[in-house]
Design goal:
It holds the Pfam family DUF2147. Keywords: Signal. With 115 residues, the protein is an alpha+beta fold. 17% of the residues lie in helices and 51% in strands. The protein has 1 helix and 8 strands; from the N terminus they run αββββββββ. The protein has an 8-stranded antiparallel beta barrel.
Length: 115
């Protein structure tokens, strides 16, 4: 009897696993310059980025919306005091983040590593 109960509970946990999984963008990421940023849910399918280390610690780096590893939103270039249209792609331990101006004519991107 106990075995059936344990197996039933294990089945429910396994079925709930995918529903509880976080989006790939959620977590801490290391920029090439060594700064650590963190993306966390800020409601619905939106994810807010915050600087965790360095000169801009505690500042927002923008927000992204999306799911399944593909996101669009804004990127704050803190040293310039400007906000750009941005996009991000998260897969495994890599996050590709880019920001563009002039309708996508000029873009900069960087690859971050999950921490």
């Amino acid at each position: 009897m106990k075995r059936k109960i344990v197996l039933a509970c294990a089945g429910f946990v396994l079925m709930a696993g995918p529903a509880l999984a976080e989006e790939p963008i959620v977590g801490s990421w290391k920029r090439p310059n060594g700064t650590i940023i963190q993306y966390s849910s800020c409601g619905g399918d939106s994810y807010c980025g915050t600087v965790l280390t360095g000169e801009y610690k505690g500042k927002s780096i923008g927000s992204m919306s999306g799911k399944d590893g593909s996101y669009k939103g804004t990127v704050n270039k803190l040293d310039e005091g400007k906000t750009y249209n941005g996009k991000a792609t998260a897969s495994g331990s890599k996050l590709s983040l880019s920001g563009c101006v002039m309708g996508g004519l000029i873009c900069k991107s960087e690859s971050l590593t999950r921490q």
